[in-house]
Write a sequence for this structure.
């Protein structure tokens, strides 16, 4: 016999109705209405500014159309987007910059697909990607006009520095993490000191040193182009932090994993690559995605040594002349670019966590 | 006299100043089944972990199947390929399926082809009576099943010697017998076994020799009938009283 007062068993799929959640008591109703009105007011203002009162194009390419408007002046993006995306890259060659940027983005997307997760495939993919990028950007072959790295800029430069930095940084981080756990005290201690030193320096100092101090101290043949020194500085900075993420992933493993692999007669490299690192990556995945996201935003710091990445190009796009009033619109546009990249990274991280069953055993 | 599998001579081990193993002398013949027992902290696990160099000894010598266990990495790897080990906590690789757990070492350390390794793996999964679990991950199995997979993993390397380090101590009581059954059947097939265990029933049934350790020393050893029937040393008598009285 069932009593009428017996509550129904809790069923998480049965969500309470909108009315029950927000309007069940008079006080709830009042608070909900206040909240809704504030939200509506903010949204309405955003909408009028961003869409209803906005000016989208400038027929003559000047800022005159935006002189007496109350909304957003998207005409600045329409007129200056090439500067934001490509920086100072020669105007008639900008198709090269577009393709180069796409090459890196496509290679990055492909290397996120599990099918490409073998060392030869990933290696080939990235070598092809960077070769394409470099040929298109530097030119000087196949009848392409030579363009110096100092003329590279905008989103293309940001994507390139980031991709190259991560690609050099990740193997370096793995090497540092393994060396810090070495049985030889000299190697372990030296690596620890190296990591701690890099982590105790601001990224700006490292970029500055790489760009301006190293050329004074290194022999001519080792200097190379400024862009590579900056990428290596950026990669080392990333590697120092990421090495500690990976090390934490390794140390979270029970000692029995290493022992079982030893007892089976596996060599150091076999144990490391087949037993320890795959599990360590899984443990270190959340902080690793964090580090990748932080590093993407840190690329904006390379402006201080004279590279016009997307943030600095944005600043140049509104400049101090005709469009100087339209800085909000430009920064909203740049913010959306960052958001697309960072949000994709986060979602990919979430996918990896599901795939590798992080948090489960 | 049968061929010698393991010969340990005047072996001492220290953790810093702490003298863990004191003057150990032990010879194990091929095909012999040894059970080592003793109170916790007596050094029994440390002793068998020295045999495949999971622990390093400081004095004396350990010779396994004619190879001297020294700092030569080649010697260590050679010995580890011939000496399988089963751990208290199974130590299966959780990121690999049961089948991959079994084929990893044969393919890497013995350079056996994948097809061949998988055939061997299925043979031993059959032997430990869980072939239907091959595609699962270790986390999906019960403790007893995991330990049987761990035994199969050791067998896939076709070892001459198997070391068992308290293989049933982490198991729920109802799963102990399924693991012991597998161990008994291995013993019947003539596998050289050195088992650290408190399963005295197992010791009586299959051991050729039972060794009692206390405070880092081998105190007493002998065939199970003598060892359990008429223990000589008072420390052995006390230990046996404690574990057999309930």
């Amino acid at each position: 016999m069932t009593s009428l007062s017996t509550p129904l068993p809790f069923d998480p799929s049965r969500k309470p109705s909108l009315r029950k959640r927000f309007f069940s008591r008079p006080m709830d109703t009042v608070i909900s209405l206040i909240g809704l009105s504030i939200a509506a007011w903010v949204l309405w203002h955003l909408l009028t500014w961003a869409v209803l009162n906005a000016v989208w194009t400038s027929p003559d390419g000047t800022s005159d159309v935006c002189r007496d408007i109350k909304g957003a002046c998207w005409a600045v993006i329409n007129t200056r987007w090439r500067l934001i995306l490509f920086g100072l890259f020669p105007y008639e060659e900008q198709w090269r910059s577009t393709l180069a940027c796409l090459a890196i983005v496509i290679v990055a997307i492909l290397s996120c697909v599990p099918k490409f997760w073998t060392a030869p495939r990933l290696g080939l993919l990235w070598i092809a990607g960077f070769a394409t990028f470099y040929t298109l950007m530097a030119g000087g072959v196949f009848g392409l006009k030579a363009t110096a790295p100092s003329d590279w800029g905008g989103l293309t430069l940001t994507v390139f520095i980031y991709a190259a930095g991560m690609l050099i940084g990740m193997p370096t981080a793995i090497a540092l993490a393994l060396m810090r756990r070495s049985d030889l005290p000299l190697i372990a201690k030296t690596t620890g000191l190296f990591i701690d030193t890099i982590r105790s320096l601001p990224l700006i100092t490292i970029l500055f040193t790489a760009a301006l101090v190293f050329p004074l101290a290194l022999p001519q043949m080792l200097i190379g182009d400024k862009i590579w020194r900056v990428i290596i500085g950026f990669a080392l900075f990333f590697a120092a932090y990421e090495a500690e993420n990976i090390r934490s992933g390794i140390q979270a493993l029970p000692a029995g994993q290493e022992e079982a692999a030893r007892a089976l007669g596996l060599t150091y490299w076999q144990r490391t690559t087949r037993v320890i690192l795959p599990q360590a990556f899984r443990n270190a995945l959340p902080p690793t995605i964090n580090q990748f996201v932080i590093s993407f935003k840190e690329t904006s710091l390379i402006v201080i040594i004279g590279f016009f990445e997307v943030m600095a190009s944005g600043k140049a796009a509104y400049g101090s002349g005709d469009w100087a009033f339209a800085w909000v619109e430009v920064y909203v546009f740049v913010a959306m670019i960052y958001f697309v990249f960072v949000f994709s990274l986060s979602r990919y991280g979430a996918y990896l966590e599901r795939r590798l069953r992080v948090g489960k055993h | 006299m049968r061929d010698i599998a393991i010969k340990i001579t005047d072996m001492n081990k220290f953790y810093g100043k702490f003298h863990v193993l004191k003057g150990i002398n032990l010879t194990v013949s091929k095909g012999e089944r040894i059970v080592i027992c003793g109170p916790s902290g007596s050094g029994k696990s440390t002793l068998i972990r020295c045999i495949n160099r999971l622990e390093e000894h400081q004095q004396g010598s350990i010779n396994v199947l004619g190879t001297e266990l020294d700092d030569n990495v080649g010697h260590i790897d050679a010995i580890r390929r011939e000496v399988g080990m089963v751990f208290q906590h199974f130590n299966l690789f959780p990121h690999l399926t049961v089948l991959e757990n079994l084929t990893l070492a044969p393919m890497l350390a013995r350079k056996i082809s994948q097809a061949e390794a998988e055939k061997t793996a299925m043979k031993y999964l059959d032997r430990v009576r869980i072939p239907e679990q091959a595609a699962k991950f270790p986390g999906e199995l019960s403790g007893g099943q995991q330990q049987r997979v761990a035994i199969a993993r050791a067998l896939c390397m076709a070892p001459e010697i198997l070391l068992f380090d308290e293989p049933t101590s982490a198991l729920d009581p109802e799963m102990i017998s399924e693991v012991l059954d597998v161990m008994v059947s291995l013993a019947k097939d003539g596998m050289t076994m050195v088992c650290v265990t408190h399963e005295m029933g197992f010791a009586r049934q299959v051991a050729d020799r039972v060794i009692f350790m206390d405070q880092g020393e081998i105190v007493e050893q002998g065939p199970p009938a003598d060892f359990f029937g008429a223990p000589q040393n008072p420390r052995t008598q006390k230990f046996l009283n404690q574990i057999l009285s309930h």
